[in-house]
Design goal:
This protein has 217 residues and is an alpha/beta fold. The protein has one domain: Metallo-beta-lactamase, Chain A, CATH 3.60.15. It is 19% helix and 28% strand. The protein has a 7-stranded mixed beta sheet with strand order 6-5-4-3-2-1-13. Strands 7-8-9-10-11-12 form a 6-stranded mixed beta sheet, with helices on one face. The radius of gyration is 16 Å and the shape is globular. The protein starts with a strand and ends with a strand. The mean pLDDT is 97.
Length: 217
Amino acid sequence: MKLQILYDNDAKNNFKAGWGFSCFIAVNEKKILFDTGWNGFVLLNNMEAAGINPEKIDIIVISHQHWDHIGGLNHVLEYTRNPDVYFPESVSENLKNEVKNQANIVEVSQARKVCDNIYTTGELGEKIKEQSLILCSKKGNIVLTGCAHPGLEAIIKKSRQFGEIYGVVGGFHDSNVNILKGTPLIIPCHCTQKKGEIKTKMSESYKNCEVGYEYDI
């Protein structure tokens, strides 16, 4: 299993930065795209720089319907071959109708399996409903968040139903980060408002998030 950041506020080398988030996951034979950032041209540039062919994407998971997580979706769908797109059930019908001509829509309300070793938490939160992914590995499970609008506490509580947590990656927004203490791997990305606090309190676990960052699980 491999995880690679494709869209974030910071970037390295030949990659481009942008406001939003996207992450690529390769597990067994499956190629998964989690969120699509805002600018589709930036996303496609970063996919090319990373050596990722959009035609090979099998599954797209959208965490929530904010512009900086769905903006690149139509660009990627131009190249894919009828992928499964996992939307939170609460996503607008207009968006689902636009996408269903190019993909197989999977509406998510409860936690469920996406593919071998990958699960969604299901919709969490009240005002802003959002799903996160759980990547199951021998080291422990890695939680992948979009913006963590429901709060890290709720996401981690749900994720623990699938086993012990080894790492948390993604946008944390303004969540209480003390819930992360003792987590071996912490990669705060995109919209995280307390990166400095995390880096200070959990320096041994902290990793910088930027486009091009790879992690072999």
